[in-house]
Amino acid sequence: MLPKPSPNYVVTVRFGKEDFSARELGDAIFPYDNNVQVVKTRFKGVLLLYTNLSFAELLKVLAVFPPAYVERIVKIDFCCPIDKIYECITEQLTQRRIQYGAVRFGRTGSLGRKLAKEIEELLMRDRKHGNDNILHVEPINDHVCFGVMEKDVDKFYLIRKKKIDKLLNR
Fold first, then answer.
1. Whole-angstrom Cα distance, residue 53 to residue 32?
2. Which of 22, 81, 100, 170 could form a disulfide with 135 if both were Cys (CB 3.0 to 4.6 A apart)?
3. Residue 33 contacts residue 43 (beta carbons within 8 Å)
């Protein structure tokens, strides 16, 4: 089960670094949002982040002292229970009028390859050619979370690399 309400972000970290990364994220965000929560999932390397910060604010805060093991941060627009996945996807995409040009899975997780393929086929029918936004699909425990983001914005390791390169080239 996902704790209520749905998480704001799914954070992918290096395997085995979940506890360290959860503390590091919480410590970095706490001065800006003292209600921040970072929750481990049953999947290695996957954390759920609950915060009041927008994606732009979150990146700005984390760019000051980039967390060492954070690889990706995906903004979540909605989550669906796996047992009602088809109805939920259809309803949410229609209701929210979500526009995207590609679909990207963070992992297949608890979906399995067959269900992941079926979900991908369903989502690809609604994609808009020429749209650069990516619909991220993140299976978390017994739910699947979805978030639309610009291409490569989720790749936090690139922000960390840029910061390190800047420090080394002073």
1. 8
2. 100
3. no
Q: How confident is the model at residue 3 (pLDDT cuts 50, 70, 90)?
A: low
Determine the Cα–Cα distance for residues 109 and 43; give it in Å rounded to an integer. Answer: 8
Task: Map residue 144 onto helix, strand or coil.
Answer: strand
The stretches of the chain forming alpha helices (DSSP H) are 18-29, 55-64, 85-96, 112-125, 156-168
Q: pLDDT of 63-97, one tens digit each?
A: 988 999 999 999 999 999 999 999 999 899 889 88
Q: Are residues 49 and 66 in the same domain?
A: yes
Single out the residue of 170, 161, 160 nearest to residue 67, CA to CA: 160
Q: Which domain holds residue 108?
A: 78-149
Residues 94 and 104 in one domain: yes
Q: pLDDT digits over 28-72, tens only?
A: 999 999 999 999 998 999 999 999 999 999 999 999 889 999 999
